Amino acid sequence: SLGWSRVTTKVEAGPIDMGLYELGCTFDGFSPGCSQFCVMDMLWGVPRTDPEHEDCAFLKNPEYIDSRDRMEKLAKWADEGEGGDGIVFVGSFGHMFQMFEVAQKYPNVKFVHFTGFIQHLPNVGNIFAKYYQSRYACGALMGKMVNRKHGAGGEHAVSYIGSYPIGEIKRHVNAFALGLQQECPKCKLYVPWLLTWVDARKEGWAIRKLHADYNIVGSAQGTDGLEPQLYVNEADLLGIGEYSNMREKAGEQTMSSILANWGPALEYFVLKVRNDNWEMESYWPAMDTGVPGVA
């Protein structure tokens, strides 16, 4: 989805125009995870910097398309704003190099990429969070509760439904595994790669297949859909949700969830533009900032 948010923040240098180019299926009713909350946290971060803002609108577009034309429209809109100062937040997967091309054409607009690593332009920054910390904590919780429910010392099977086998996600899986093994050293972790961020059919098939083939007693996930946690509760397993408190919709067998509170991180960059102290950087907040967390 392509999110457009026109925001007027009254400062001496003029208003700040903010835009969000977001990947995924925001507000589709099926994905309560990262895509939806990225947009919600943008709306949270804007009034925090200044309570007077105008309007927000969001447009849907297919995933993984060539986004340069749409991104350039958003950059042009930010560049021609009332005050001339603008910032564009760009969703992560598949957009980094396209954003870099657009950023070169609009040096007055600041660009911030989620999960990116390009740092060759003065108007480009990157943002992510130390989610491995919250995943380690959830892994330890899973191990502790597996021991309590099924007996300590057993070779219990647990799964982690993976999205894409990229460095970011492997880091999360490894952190969860370390936490799990801290509490349940003999637990075995099974990780299927679904090659999607959210797909109810694939996620539902994966959790059922893992249960049938490996007799898993619990599952975490790196995908956004609710289906794995629905099955966890149906089958009386133990679950860890993704990027929202899935316990509220799935049930009590979902013990906890990874939380993504992007609001403070977005505010961090907006204030840099507002206070005229922008610098090229990668912002990497930890759990004590309130950005990554657990439900």
Globular, elongated, flat, extended or rod-shaped: what is the shape?
A: elongated
Number of strand elements:
13
Strand order of the largest sheet: 3-1-2-4-5-6-12
Helix content bin:
25-40%
Radius of gyration, CA atoms, in whole angstroms: 20 Å
Mean pLDDT, to the nearest integer, reads: 79
Low-pLDDT segments, ≥5 res: 1-14, 23-63
Going by helix content, strand content and strand pairing, the class is alpha/beta
* Strand fraction: 15-25%
Through-space gap between termini: 26 Å
| Total count of helical runs of at least 4 residues | 9
Sheet with the most strands, sense and barrel status: 7 strands, mixed
Order of helices and strands: EEHEHEHEEHEHEHEHEHEHEE
Features:
295 residues, alpha/beta, 20% strand
Task: Give an overview of the whole structure.
With 295 residues, this protein is an alpha/beta fold. Helix content is 39%, strand content 20%. It has helices at residues 34-49, 68-79, 96-105, 131-150, 167-183, 200-214, 227-234, 247-250, 263-274, and strands at 2-6, 16-21, 55-59, 85-90, 109-114, 124-127, 157-161, 188-190, 218-221, 238-241, 254-260, 282-283, 292-294. The strands form two sheets. Strands 3-1-2-4-5-6-12 form a seven-stranded mixed β-sheet, sandwiched between helices. Helix 8 links the parallel strand 10 and strand 11 (254-260). Helix 2 (68-79) packs parallel to helix 3 (96-105) and helix 4 (131-150) packs parallel to helix 5 (167-183). The longest helix is centred in the middle third of the chain and has 20 residues, at 131-150. The model is unreliable at 1-14 and 23-63 (pLDDT under 50).
